[in-house]
Design a protein that fits this description.
- The structure is a single chain.
- This protein is α/β, with parallel strands linked by helices and 402 residues long.
- The protein has two domains: 262 residues, pyruvate-formate lyase- activating enzyme, CATH 3.80.30.20; 84 residues, Orthogonal Bundle (Arc Repressor Mutant, subunit A), CATH 1.10.10.920.
- The strands form five sheets. Strands 11-12-10-9-8-7-6-3-13 form a nine-stranded mixed β-sheet, sandwiched between helices.
- Strand 9, helix 6 and strand 10 form a beta-alpha-beta unit.
């Protein structure tokens, strides 16, 4: 059975998935024409010869991974800006992936920025087997787009999604950012109206963050802009979520919503602590309990010719597994699977975190049912605080036993 364009294994009523989408393959394309003001990702300037050499190195690493016997169920090409690749390199990358992995896939996603995607690239992607595009809209407010350093205007996003529809792209996703300085309820209403016109089957709704080293962080520190208050950000986020629910979207993860079976299988695998292999400069991997990432250096990656230096190697220990399950599964609307937690960690979640669990449940932030502990809608507003407390509880309890 093919999971593409179906809701196979996902119950939209409770957000639970009964299909194992592990392992996934992530491919990093780091090039950007300019860096967005909120971005702290590993990106590189667009230089034609470097992009040609980088794709050649990617193709070599793809061959090595495929020859190792790795068989992914999902592919996600992210960045950076994958759609910024020249047409020739775009096709070369897609063909290399298709030749090595297409037979096993249930989902193949590629990120596209509105200003750099075009019908020719869309057609080439569909021919290779891509069945899902994720577009970084962020907002439909020209003021917000300017503040965030985006290179497109709102109309361009509408145009791109018209191409998707005309060319028969099976599944689409929109990234939206809420909480940017100067945002108001009117802009949220306008964004919701634009989403309704485009009608993607997936929305990623993120709060604007001020990461160290970004332009936004520097401007905030200098007093050059005034961030929205946390309560205002929560108010705006909830207004957006309410509007999306009226459009038929269901929240299956703290920042992600779907309709028509539009869950992101690749990202769902991350949140379920599934395995994944990262290809490209700076890409992270998690295979057989081992974590590592490729050194984030485009020049060094090219020079390595498909055998990049691995850094930050870690083997998951008892505490690591406990912390990872808490941090990942509580993000899901289905919540933390208590039986799965016990089977992997040999501990009862209730024993490790019983005091905080009782406290958050009494406050209406959590609920327990059918073997799952999950956040309520109110609980999602304070999810980071709850996760931090659970992690502290688990560390104290496990350290006391050693």
């Amino acid at each position: 059975m093919d999971a593409r364009s179906t809701n196979w294994g996902f119950n939209s009523e409770n957000g639970r998935c009964h299909y194992n989408a592990s392992p996934g393959l992530y491919v990093h394309v780091p090039f950007c024409r300019s860096r967005c003001t909120y971005c702290d990702f590993h990106v590189a300037a667009m230089r034609p010869t470097v992009m040609v050499d980088y794709i050649e190195a990617l193709k070599s690493e793809i061959d090595q991974v495929a020859n190792s016997g790795f068989i992914p169920k999902t592919i996600f090409i992210g960045g950076g800006t994958p759609s910024a690749l020249p047409q020739e390199q775009w096709i070369q990358l897609l063909e290399a992936l298709a030749e090595s992995f297409s037979d096993s896939l249930v989902e193949w996603t590629i990120e596209a920025n509105p200003e750099s995607i075009n019908p020719q690239k869309i057609k080439a992607a569909l021919q290779a087997g891509v069945d899902r595009f994720s577009t970084g809209a962020q907002t439909f407010s020209e003021k917000g787009l300017s503040l965030m350093g985006r290179r497109h205007n709102a109309q361009r996003v509408v145009e791109v999604h018209r191409w998707f529809e005309e060319l028969g792209v099976p599944r689409t996703s929109l990234d939206i950012i809420v909480g940017w300085p100067g945002q108001d309820l009117e802009s949220i209403d306008n964004d919701l109206a634009a989403v309704e016109r485009i009608d993607p089957d997936h929305i990623s709704l993120y709060h604007l963050s001020y990461e160290s080293g970004t332009w936004l962080h520097a401007m905030r520190e200098r007093g050059g802009l005034k961030p929205l208050l946390d309560d205002t950000c929560i108010k705006f986020s909830n207004a957006f979520l309410s509007g999306l629910r009226l459009q038929g979207y269901r929240r299956y993860e703290v920042s992600n919503l779907e309709k028509r079976g539009g869950v992101s299988w690749h990202n769902l695998n991350y949140w379920q602590r599934g395995e994944y292999w990262g290809i490209g400069s700076g890409a992270a991997s998690f295979i057989e309990g081992q974590r590592w990432k490729n050194k984030p250096d485009v020049g060094a990656y090219i020079a390595a010719g498909g055998s990049p230096e691995r850094i930050d190697l870690e083997k998951s220990g008892e505490l690591d597994i406990v912390v990872e399950l808490i941090m990942l599964q509580l993000r899901l609307s289905s919540g933390l699977d208590l039986n799965h937690f016990r089977n992997l960690t040999k501990h009862q979640f209730k024993d490790l975190c019983k005091g905080s669990l009782r406290n958050f449940t009494e406050k209406g932030f959590l609920t327990e049912e059918a073997g799952y502990v999950r956040a309520t809608q109110r609980g999602f507003d304070v999810l980071d605080s709850m996760i931090l407390q659970f992690v502290e509880d688990a560390e104290k309890r496990l350290n006391a036993r050693t």
